[in-house]
Amino acid sequence: MLNDLSTSRSDRHVRTETAARPDSPARPSAHAKHRHDDAPDAAAEFARLAELDDGPERDAVRDALVTAWLPMAHRIAGRFRDRGESVEDLRQVAAMGLVKAVDRYDPSRGAFESYAVPTITGEVKRHFRDRMWALRVPRRVQDLRNKVRLARRELTSNPGAGEPTVAEIAAHTGLTEDEVGAGMEALESFSTLSLDAELSSADDTCSLADTLGDVDSSYDVIVDREAAKEGLRRLPERERAILYMRFFEDMTQARIADVLGISQMHVSRLISRSCARVRDEALGEQPRAGRPDTDGRTRAA
Q: What pTM value is reported for the model?
């Protein structure tokens, strides 16, 4: 946790007078030094905010505190520049974290900066984790990605060090090789390439979409045909003839009825029962109880 590094204006004035008068005894101060110039002295305002009830006066004090500490939020946002997000958007996210810090801060728990810095930083990191991934990656895999990324940086920091292997990264991080592999795949998931991106080659220039395969529906037709073949072979000869005339010669049910000398209604029932039987056998299902067979007899359950 960060130490209390805030400095009051009065303390800065005391140090200035002490430096100007060497003969003056040094005065110890609890706030002898602060880390950043954008950390204002707002202890009195925070104490006042904690005592006020909801209303216009409290809102005014809250807005003034947010405005006073906004430069610190912008500084924290600047740490994350050049990571694929605009600085203005990062500042907006950091400002949201600052508002949360102001609303949740308890003056009795220490300096505001010690609480606000991790709160704002966490809000910005959460923005990258939840909003900036081109593909939705589980939190566990994101953590693996961060461990792998840091391990690669540490292993390649030595002069002359090459790209570490999966085994070396696993040994360095204590992860399994499968976990390292998942983290390395996640390294490529933060951003995506447009399908319209041009790919140049020695012969031609094409887009990424032109190189991707498509689903061939003919494979499904082959699978269905092979699955139905055995069921069709088991049908009585008349039912096979009816299905052939209906689906291969495209004859109407009335025309089939005239050819066979039976009623159109009978042709319709035979087609329905035959198709159901072939379908059940293709799907590996048992015939349903009470369904009449194609020869007019009722099957047992």
A: 0.43
